[in-house]
Write a structure and sequence with these properties.
Layout (H helix, E strand, L loop, with lengths): L3 H13 L9 E5 L2 H11 L11 E4 L4 E5 L4 H10 L7 E10 L9 E10 L17 H13 L4 E9 L8 H10 L3 E3 L2 H10 L4 E9 L10 H29 L9
Parallel strand pairs: 1-3, 1-4, 4-8, 5-6, 6-7
Antiparallel strand pairs: 2-3, 4-7, 5-8
Helix pairs in contact: 3-6, 4-7
Amino acid sequence: MLDRQQITSNWLPRYTGMPLDRFGDYILLTNFRHYVNRFAEMFNCEIHGENKPMQSATNSSGVTIINFGIGSANAATIMDLLSAIHPKGVLFLGKCGGLKRSTEIGHFILPIAAIRGEGASNDYFPAEVPALPSFKLHKFVSEKIIEHGHDYRTGVVYSTNRRIWEHDPVFMEKLKKTTSIGIDMETATIFIVGHYNVIARGALLLVSDVPLTPEGVKTEESDQHVTRQWADSHLQIGIDAMTELGEKGEKIKHFLY
């Protein structure tokens, strides 16, 4: 297989266990198996890929959810593989650490951009290319957040490959200088690789910890609390946004240079 389309068409089912014709036009990406389980329960649909690296499910409305794992390398992989089906929209439902005093656990962040501190995106575009979401997709998601009775923050998030950095005062000082509102591992990669593959993309992040303070670093107990309190709302907003985007949203056009 020398053709890129041949490779991605073969590898997307290989990684997810789902045949190409079972994928919907609108994709939800997540790091959490729990989200896939809840999605399948809500729509009584089959979960594919139980013995694969990524689990996925598609409902009758043509929305597919994929648990792609953790980290920028996995984020790049799934955004490359999704080019096999040319989805009309991809929304990442992830968690992030809040970096501002005004940002509290349970808040939603709709990032206007992401700083490319993860490294994986450098294989796709030069460092000068900003990691941006698709404006029309985010505009529609923002409307769904408000309809669900939630507020949200906007701003720049910092994406990093470092999973354990909370002990490092030098890195923490660097984060403060970037004026980022949140930190995660995947958003910048999803934005850049989506741009590379001409895929409309966005991210709705749930603040799960406030790691700039010792008492705010995520623990197993605190993460379970966040999941119990806000995960269902997070998932439902994503489902509603991607379901109605195809029905009511503005058409998202792509321009190649």
